[in-house]
């Protein structure tokens, strides 16, 4: 009953003391539920539901529900929830983040709140770090839920819409963040309510929550459609870039992952394309295209940012090392890279719908998460998501040895030391995991290991299909595994008993990451559940991390360093310097995330309005659709009248009004003389009279076959087309917003003001297009939208 941890709680927070008592209460119920039959455990679901329906809240049944799940797990999986897992479950249930060390059983802990929350019948989503884990957890942990009478679904890429709907109808649904996000976006593009797959956003548990809500926060989910742009220019500019020389024709900013043309480079482009000024508005398509060609040439690296599979570009997630299924670079960069690699160029896309993971998960009524590395970002989790982070003690004492970093002046010294360390530890028989930051780096170190005849396995995006087999062997005696960040999260390396006696798994990190949280994840592969193990980072001052640091500060430090004969930096305080660099870069990234988050709020609010508008149209019956259409037209007409007959004017504009109204009513035969001295109210009444005639025409049209669906599609087409244009405009507007103010004005307020102005203009354009094109659409009898 947690007696071994009472000292810890005396020194901890009130939250942990309270959670300790809850876990203790579950322990006291264990004997009671051990005496239940399988059927009695299963029937507890109905008992709990009745109690909730009768007015009890979840806090009143949570200890019993947790005790039921623990007992089911013991019978189905032969796994008994440890006390620390019960504690993690309570934190998740209350909408917090449970920091649980790697190997402490987060996945099993999630079965507790997911069962309890599923009793409400609104669906629980469990987000995993990748599809492999989603499938594994659904098949393994899903057995507990199914034993207790709940249904379990799996949502991964490649599934048909009908399969996804079935997955979402389940009580508990496992899947990846990107797949849930993309499903949400696709649901905002359907033409029939029945085509949607999701059924709401009730309760979500996000595994590796720091990876998803912080590391991936700057990457939006984008659904794109073909824009019809040609591909020839991409091929031309890609070839042209091969003649460009760094620091002469272009410069690179590593910090912002951007490249810029110098004056010499711009002049070279102008001569080649026979233009006077590359930056003139008339050449914006060329400028955009050749700028993306430059980024593909100077910034994007094969086997780092992307790989080529079956002559197609596949994106690599630098935080997980995995292929990003179903994702492509946007804004023409995908095509620029294809041209650079001499691949078939795909059609360029335009954004149709977009959302950041930050804003997707804010849709949920309640969100919680778990990870082994949340504490370094505790403040950001609270400021951005109002999620508290609570650190849970380990079930067994941690005995892993984390050795001090070895920091070398250059890459040669680093690699020599890595090879030396691997040979020495390999001879002891201990398994070794060598963590790298890219496929390119893995393959470079592999070459050196082969030279000294150290047999090893390689795990990265290219060998992903062999992942399970490679991981299964990684904890055996004499095994050496080179792995990208694929081995950094959710990977269980099981040790043979003989290996434990030798000292356990040894981990070598070959670079410090941009975030210490990712380093923590790599270390966490060793020393799980009180097992022995050791870790050490062997890095160099030529590593990519230092490219992001201030160049002048870096040069000053390099002038002061002293090394031994192997190139190892011994002074001044290399470990402190590395921490300073890493913290500085983390702060830069946090500032970037905050910047993006502030910009995205305006667009997020606008998307909520547009999606609500779409949902209203999707839900209307045919008769109400007619009313909605007439409301659009009526608003447009009233706006026209006010435009040409504004208050406090002696010069109304009947001729201009007649001209614009003739687009809505082509048979309009009004004359300026008809208006005489009519005031604005009489003019409006006259215009509404013309609308009454259209209502009669509409009554005839509504008898047409499939009229409701035709009308719904017509309206949705105009909403969607204008929304796509607006997204494109907003992307351009965001790019122009800096972190500094303009003339002492808040740039975010300026952005919001301009964004609102453009959004209101878009809404007016929707009304105008629907009004102007409807009569033509009605008379043409179209069964497809968009030709009006």
Automatic annotation (TrEMBL):
Reactions mediated catalytically: ATP + H2O + cellular proteinSide 1 = ADP + phosphate + cellular proteinSide 2
All copies of domain Helicase ATP-binding, residue ranges: 87-244
Gene Ontology BP annotations: intracellular protein transmembrane transport; protein import; protein targeting; protein transport by the Sec complex
UniProt GO MF annotations: ATP binding; protein-exporting ATPase activity
PROSITE patterns for this protein: HELICASE_ATP_BIND_1, HELICASE_CTER, SECA_MOTOR_DEAD
Domain Helicase C-terminal residues, every copy: 414-569
Keyword Nucleus found: no
EC id: 7.4.2.8
Compartment annotation: Cell membrane; Cytoplasm; Membrane
A Pfam family of this chain: SecA_DEAD
Positions of ATP binding: 85, 103-107, 492
Key word Metal-binding present: no
Keywords: ATP-binding, Cell membrane, Cytoplasm, Membrane, Nucleotide-binding, Protein transport, Translocase, Translocation, Transport
Membrane topology: Peripheral membrane protein
Main location: membrane
Start and end residues of each SecA family profile domain: 1-570
Alphabetical list of Gene3D superfamilies matching this protein: Helical scaffold and wing domains of SecA, P-loop containing nucleotide triphosphate hydrolases, SecA, preprotein cross-linking domain
Family per similarity comment: Belongs to the SecA family.
HAMAP family xrefs: SecA
Cited function: Part of the Sec protein translocase complex. Interacts with the SecYEG preprotein conducting channel. Has a central role in coupling the hydrolysis of ATP to the transfer of proteins into and across the cell membrane, serving as an ATP-driven molecular motor driving the stepwise translocation of polypeptide chains across the membrane.
PANTHER family (UniProt xref): CHLOROPLAST PROTEIN-TRANSPORTING ATPASE (PTHR30612:SF0), SECA INNER MEMBRANE COMPONENT OF SEC PROTEIN SECRETION SYSTEM (PTHR30612)
Record's subunit section: Monomer and homodimer. Part of the essential Sec protein translocation apparatus which comprises SecA, SecYEG and auxiliary proteins SecDF. Other proteins may also be involved.
Protein name per its UniProtKB record: Protein translocase subunit SecA
């Amino acid at each position: 009953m947690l007696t071994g941890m009472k000292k810890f709680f005396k020194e901890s927070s009130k939250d942990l003391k309270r959670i300790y008592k809850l876990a203790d209460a579950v322990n006291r119920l264990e004997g009671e539920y051990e005496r239940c039959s399988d059927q009695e455990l299963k029937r507890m679901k109905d008992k709990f539901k009745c109690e909730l329906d009768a007015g009890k809240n979840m806090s009143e049944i949570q200890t019993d529900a947790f005790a039921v799940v623990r007992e089911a797990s013991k019978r189905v999986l032969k796994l008994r929830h440890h006390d620390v897992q019960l504690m993690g479950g309570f934190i998740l249930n209350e909408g917090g983040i449970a920091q649980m060390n790697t190997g402490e059983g987060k996945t099993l802990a999630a079965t507790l709140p997911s069962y309890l929350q599923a009793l409400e019948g609104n669906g629980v989503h469990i987000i995993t770090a990748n599809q492999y884990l989603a499938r594994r957890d659904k098949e393994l942990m899903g057995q507990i839920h199914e034993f207790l009478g709940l249904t379990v679904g799996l949502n991964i890429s490649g599934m048909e819409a009908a399969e996804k709907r079935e997955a979402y109808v389940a009580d508990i649904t496992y899947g990846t963040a990107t797949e849930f996000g993309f499903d949400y976006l696709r649901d905002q593009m359907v033409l029939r309510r029945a085509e949607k797959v999701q059924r709401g956003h009730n309760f979500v548990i996000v595994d590796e929550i720091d990876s998803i809500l912080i590391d991936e926060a700057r990457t939006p989910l984008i659904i794109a459609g073909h824009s019809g742009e040609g591909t020839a220019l991409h091929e031309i500019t890609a070839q042209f870039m091969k003649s460009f020389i760094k620091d002469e024709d272009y410069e690179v900013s590593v910090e912002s992952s951007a490249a810029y043309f110098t004056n010499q480079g711009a002049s070279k482009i102008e001569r080649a394309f026979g233009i006077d000024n590359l930056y003139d508005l008339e050449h914006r398509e060329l400028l955009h295209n050749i700028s993306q060609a430059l980024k593909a040439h100077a910034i994007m690296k094969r086997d780092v940012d992307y790989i080529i599979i079956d002559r197609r570009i596949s994106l690599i997630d630098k935080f997980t090392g995995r292929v990003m299924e179903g994702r492509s670079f946007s804004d023409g960069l995908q095509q620029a890279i294809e041209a650079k690699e001499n691949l078939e160029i795909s059609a360029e896309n335009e954004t149709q719908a977009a959302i950041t993971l930050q804003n997707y998960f804010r849709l949920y009524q309640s969100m919680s998460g778990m990870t082994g590395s949340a504490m370094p970002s505790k403040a950001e989790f609270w400021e951005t998501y109002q999620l508290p982070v609570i650190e849970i003690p380990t079930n067994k004492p941690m005995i892993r040895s984390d050795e001090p970093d070895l920091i070398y002046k250059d890459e040669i010294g680093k690699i020599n030391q890595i090879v030396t360390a691997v040979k020495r530890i390999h001879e002891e028989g201990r398994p070794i995991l060598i963590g790298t930051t890219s496929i390119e780096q893995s393959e470079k170190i592999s070459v050196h290991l082969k030279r000294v005849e150290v047999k090893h396995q390689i795990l990265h995006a290219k060998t992903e299909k062999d992942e399970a087999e490679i991981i299964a062997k990684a904890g055996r005696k004499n095994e050496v595994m080179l792995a990208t960040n694929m081995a950094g999260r959710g990977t269980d390396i099981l040790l043979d008993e003989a290996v434990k006696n030798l000292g356990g798994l040894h981990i070598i990190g070959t670079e410090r990451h941009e975030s210490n949280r990712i380093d923590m994840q790599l270390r966490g592969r060793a020393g799980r559940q009180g097992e022995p193990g050791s870790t050490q980072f062997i890095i160099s001052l030529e590593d990519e991390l230092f490219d992001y640091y201030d160049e002048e500060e870096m040069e000053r430090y390099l002038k002061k360093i002293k090394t031994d004969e192997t190139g190892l930096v011994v002074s001044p305080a290399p470990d402190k310097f590395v921490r300073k660099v890493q913290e500085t870069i983390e702060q830069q990234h946090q500032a970037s995330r905050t910047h993006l988050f502030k910009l995205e709020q305006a667009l997020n609010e606008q998307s909520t309005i547009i999606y609500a508008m779409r949902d209203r149209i999707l839900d209307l019956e045919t008769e109400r659709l007619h009313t909605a259409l007439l409301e659009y037209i009526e608003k447009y007409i009233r706006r026209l009248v006010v435009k040409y007959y504004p208050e406090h004017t002696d010069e109304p504009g009947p001729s201009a009004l007649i001209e614009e109204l003739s687009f809505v009513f082509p048979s309009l035969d009004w004359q300026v003389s008809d208006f005489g001295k009519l005031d604005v109210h009489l003019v409006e009444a006259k215009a509404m009279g013309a609308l009454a005639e259209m209502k009669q025409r509409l009554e005839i049209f509504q008898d047409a076959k499939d009229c409701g669906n035709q009308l719904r599609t017509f309206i949705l087409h105009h909403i969607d087309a204008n929304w796509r244009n607006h997204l494109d405009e907003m992307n351009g507007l965001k790019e122009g917003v800096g972190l500094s103010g303009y003339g002492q004005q808040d740039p975010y307020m300026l952005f919001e003001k301009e964004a609102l102005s453009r959004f209101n203009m878009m809404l007016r354009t929707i009304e105008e297009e629907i009004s102007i094109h409807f009569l033509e659409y009605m008379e043409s009898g179209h069964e497809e939208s968009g030709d009006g």
